[in-house]
Design brief:
heterodimer; A: eight-stranded mixed β-sheet; B: alpha/beta; UDP N-Acetylglucosamine Acyltransferase, domain 1; eight-stranded mixed β-sheet; seven-stranded parallel β-sheet; 29% strand; flat
């Protein structure tokens, strides 16, 4: 029953995107178990067979995908499952295939500058700030990924960690800042 | 008899607080009765003081001792999720929990007299198992290991206690600590993200006295 409702909600979302929101491209077989909150004018590409779910046991029960600028771009690969994840992009966020993200934030900008007026961030560009998350990456609950981070294929980020530097593939990282603890 | 006289004394001194306590007790009793009838695998001892909302979900077993209290927290009520049919959560007596989220896949044992803030106790790295990844047969998650927390432990807010932790009696897990696969001995303080070396509290108190 839940599966059926999720598939129907996904189809309705796809239809809404085709008709009204041309900047969103959705693949086949999207399943919406919980609400998907999309804002902004940037490009959003969702691959085939993605699952949008809430995390069991917390009140935050929806996925947010925000694009903060016209040139911003969020790309999510096939078979991704997002559990109450929050993505907000000013430049580009690329998420690979078979990704599993739980209740964590991914952002590719600082939103403000270090100056006292807290204005627009300076020295940010597409090359230095784009976040790239590889295939088969798993990110635990209550963790954060900040700008300019590359996470290699098959990495596991533990719960509660803050990723500020790039992480190589197929390893387990934990902490603030996240450090590689073991290879898997 | 003495508890009734204590309650009357409290009512005279602080009527609003007594009313709140009475309401919490009523709410807790209703919750216990509901779980007894609807979900027999959840056993909660009476009296159960419920100032904030409390939820149990999932197919596993949950046992909570007598005189436990769910205190109000700025974030959320207590939520206990069992992710597997063989999962087991045991919480001792006299615990005061506020805003704790417990996600259990194997076994979580919590001793008597715990104080816990808005924290996460989880005996696996990832709470969910998407079917698309599970069918491919790759090692999706690390194998979950049981958590054991001793008596009279103080768990600070925003902390994560992850799989394979054993925490001794009278220890303190400080604010924002994230720890996994380690043992904290009796009467030690753990801090940091990830927490590396717990400090004995007796030494800490001595150091404070020296500074004075």
């Amino acid at each position: 029953m839940k599966e059926l409702v999720a598939v129907i909600r996904g189809k309705i979302f796809l239809l809404r995107c085709r008709l009204f929101r041309k900047n969103i491209r959705v693949g086949r077989g999207l399943r919406l178990y919980k609400r998907l909150d999309v804002r902004g004018e940037g490009t959003l590409i969702i691959g085939d067979n993605c699952r949008i779910c809430g995390i069991t046991g917390d009140r935050k029960q929806f996925v947010t995908l925000y694009t903060l600028h016209r040139v911003a771009r969020i790309q999510i690969g096939d078979n991704a499952s997002l559990y109450a994840a929050r993505l907000s992009s000013r430049y580009a966020i690329t998420v690979g295939r078979d990704v599993h993200i739980e209740e964590s934030g991914i952002m590719d900008t600082d939103f403000h500058s270090l100056e006292r007026d807290r204005g627009e961030p300076v020295n940010e560009s597409l090359e230095s700030c784009a976040v790239i998350i590889g295939d088969r990456v798993r990110i635990g609950a209550r963790s954060m990924v900040t700008k300019g981070v590359r996470i290699g294929d098959g990495a596991l980020i533990g719960p509660g960690s803050v990723v500020t530097r790039s992480i190589p593939g197929s390893c387990f990282a934990l902490g603030n800042p996240a450090k590689v603890l073991s290879q898997t | 008899m003495s508890s009734i006289s204590k309650f009357i004394k409290l009512f005279i001194e602080n009527p609003a607080g007594a009313a709140r306590l009475f309401r919490a007790l009523l709410r807790g009793t209703f919750t216990v009765v509901y779980y007894r009838l609807a979900k027999p695998r959840v056993r909660i001892g009476l009296p159960f003081f419920m100032y904030e909302r409390f939820r149990v979900s999932g197919p596993g077993k949950v046992t909570i001792g007598k005189f436990c209290a769910i205190y109000p927290n700025i974030f959320d009520g207590v939520c206990i999720v069992t992710l597997d049919p063989c999962a087991e959560v045991c919480i001792g007596r006299n615990c005061s929990l506020g805003g704790v989220t417990i996600r259990c896949r194997k076994r979580i044992e919590i001793g008597d007299g715990i104080m816990a803030g808005n924290s996460l106790i989880q005996d696996c790295m990832l709470a969910e198992r998407p079917p698309a990844l599970a069918s491919k047969g790759m090692p999706h998650d690390m194998p979950s290991r049981a958590i054991r927390i001793g008596r009279n432990v103080w768990v600070g807010a925003q902390s994560c206690i992850l799989q394979g932790m054993t925490i001794g009696d009278d220890s303190v897990v400080s604010l924002g600590t994230v720890c996994c696969d380690a043992g904290i001995e009796e009467y030690h303080l753990a801090s940091g993200n990830p927490s590396v070396r717990p400090i004995p509290i007796s030494k800490l108190i001595k150091f404070q006295d020296m500074r004075r």
